[in-house]
Amino acid sequence: GAGVSQSPSNKVTEKGKDVELRCDPISGHTALYWYRQSLGQGLEFLIYFQGNSAPDKSGLPSDRFSAERTGGSVSTLTIQRTQQEDSAVYLCASSLSGGARETQYFGPGTRLLVL
Amino acid sequence: DAKTTQPNSMESNEEEPVHLPCNHSTISGTDYIHWYRQLPSQGPEYVIHGLTSNVNNRMASLAIAEDRKSSTLILHRATLRDAAVYYCVPMEYGNKLVFGAGTILRVKS
Predict the structure, then answer these.
(1) For residue B36, which of A39, A105, A35 has the smallest C-alpha distance?
(2) Chain B interface with A: residues with Cβ < 8 Å
(3) pLDDT of A57
């Protein structure tokens, strides 16, 4: 398909384990964003990539959260030593070049549940 | 980041127009005004955006105040499929979308 894809769609893990969430942006999009949405809450920005660089990491909630992007394409969000408060839907979005006029296209999200 | 204020919820009858307001009094001169909506259990979906002039597309119209401190999203004929949370989001280059609480739109048949 031509849209943003994310995997896994659902992830259940135990407190203290590490998890990796994957995002495949739309081909050719240089800008990639991660957001999360906790139950009943609004969307919260986590990190922005332009190519493989992350000029804005201001939304990462703690040093347990990290992300990388390789080849200007796939991105992985890693949460180490997961806590119950990390339970949320993690959304990835991409846009052509990060311009203010551009549409961000969102993936379906990964639903993370930490037991 | 510009702050936005939207009504918590609104209700409309099917086939009637809906005007969803947003105040963004701290917007900068180069921020575009984007509107996204989120249907239940889905990721946000782009609706429309503009800078200074009113904009129309197949989904909606966007009316932007002359001073750019507010805007109104107009759905010309609401359908049940339009029931969603609607977010107005000022955005500058390379920046993230900063979502507020949005407006829950309920559409009655």
Answers:
(1) A105
(2) 30-32, 36, 38, 42-46, 49, 51, 87, 91-102
(3) 93
